[in-house]
Design brief:
The chain has 10 helices and no strands. By secondary structure, the chain is mainly alpha-helical.
């Protein structure tokens, strides 16, 4: 197995173990054993457990980036683009179990090392959403708005939903209400 393949294998194994047991209860020894590697091999590729977890969360968020970029660059009208963006964001995050770990208040202080990954994703989202909103204004679909501020509000709303959706395991129950939330959001932004 080559260097890149070994690193990828360790990341995949770590993602599953972190996802199953959580950050606190997972050890590098467990990851190494499950990957059929020596503990030192894991440390060769990742400086620490924190570094490994940060990369696992980053990988989950990269999946979102790819899909959300595809939507924002698509040919749909801005209203459908925004709707698909929001629905897809929540659907993909529902599968990002390691990202969920970063939302738990009982370990939040201990996971501050992933804040730069989350903040980078926040900035990325703000750019994508601003682009969709700008397109909507230019096409006279959305009212004239401050794109940056509006994108930050949308992100705050979606981040506010992450706790009940994912930590309280209500995603399936609340998923159907996403349409209602989107309609409320559109009421304030769309040109009548």
């Amino acid at each position: 197995m080559g260097v890149d393949e070994t690193r990828k294998n360790i990341l995949e194994v770590a993602s599953k173990i972190f996802g199953k047991y959580g950050y606190k209860r997972t050890t590098i020894g467990e990851i190494a054993s499950s990957a059929h590697k020596a503990k030192g091999s894991v440390y060769y590729y990742f400086v620490s457990k924190e570094d490994l977890f940060k990369e696992v969360v980053g990988k989950e968020l990269n999946v979102l980036k790819v899909e959300l970029s595809r939507i924002s660059e698509g040919k749909e009208d801005p209203i459908n683009k925004l709707k698909n963006y929001l629905v897809t964001r929540m659907r993909l995050l529902s599968n990002a179990v390691n990202y969920h770990e970063t939302l738990k208040s009982n370990i939040l202080d201990q996971l501050d090392f992933v804040e730069d990954v989350k903040n980078e994703f926040y900035r990325y989202e703000a750019v994508l959403l601003s682009g969709i909103l700008k397109e909507g204004v230019e096409n006279n679909v959305f009212k004239p708005i401050d794109y940056k501020m509006a994108s930050e509000v949308i992100i705050m709303v979606t981040k506010g939903l992450e706790m009940p959706f994912f930590l309280q395991n209500k995603y399936k129950e609340l998923e159907t209400r996403s349409e209602e939330l989107f309609n409320i959001l559109m009421t304030g932004m769309t040109v009548k």
